[in-house]
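Usage

Read records sequentially. Each one opens with the input sequence:
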Amino acid sequence: MRQQLEPGVVNTDYWQSLDDGRVQCDACPRHCRLHTGQRGACFVRAERNGEIVLTSYGRSTGFCIDPIEKKPLNHFLPGSSVLSFGTAGCNLACKFCQNWDISKSRETDILSAWAMPDALVAAARTHDCASIAFTYNDPVVFLEYAVDVAAVAREQGIKAVAVTAGYICDQPRQQLFGAMDAINVDLKAFSEDFYRRLCGGTLAATLETLEYIYHRTEAWLEITTLLIPGKNDSEDEIDQLSRWLVKNLGVEVPLHFSAFHPDWKMRDIPATPAPTLNRARDIALANGLQYVYTGNVHDPVGSSTYCPNCGIRLIERDWYQLGEWALADTSVSNTDETGTGKCGGCDEIIAGVFTDQPGSWSRQRQKVDISRF
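and closes with the structure output:
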């Protein structure tokens, strides 16, 4: 665990001094070059005494217990509860951000809740959470904090989950995602133009992250794409995106198509109609992906899990409420009693991280007072 320079501030590893006196942050592809006292585009990484420091270590915007399906993760401990929290700031500039009050904040006052790694894990254990999620804003910008929490959680048998856009450089990518048990990557679109104009980033960096997570880590991976009418929802783009996933990752990686609602700087765009999500799901399934879901809409069919071989419904979902369970457990690990699953009808192997029975957290959301721990 890192030593605090002062409350909320720790040294970071990913930076270099430049000949012109500035310091360059190398956590993400922005490579912010900072003069004395300046903050990076993410707001929480800053120059201090000729180094880059993280200014949000141990500080959060709040803590909630959610269903794991809300991350969204449908093949990772279904029905279980996850202690979710975030900090402030983000290294992308998405005009459609739906957590903009946190990720776009330039106010340290919103970081009102203190929680060191030990306290977070104690809270998760007390509330019987199977995992801790770094979410609401991107853990890339507070990776040192996330990695330390994940290390303590692992010692206590609690999983670590990252919800991220994956806009990160190679070395910090290895450190952050190597510490995770499950990851949902927000693949914004399948267009460099979209990433440049609407996110201030690059598609290529996200694709590199996806390939790294899938091929080089042990973490369970799922992907989410928020479909925005007229921006990234064309049949051609969805076709290209899903074909890339099949070719470069695998047919078993779950893909979530999520509905946009007007927010932040794109309030003039209408909400995504359900038929758009259903069409996208059909295209991705036709291209070979085995598990494709719809989200942010009421769609029990599109949110449920089906056997890719015989087609029976294995896990029924209505919003985040689980119903029918026809998944049989197999290949169970002796260490944590989880493993891949199999279809109860035809014995087809179902990729994921499952237990014998689903959790029972359901749709509820519960705030947590972390000061008690």
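Summary fields computed downstream for this record:
- The chain has a mean pLDDT of 93.
- The domain at 59-367 is CATH 3.20.20.70 (TIM Barrel).
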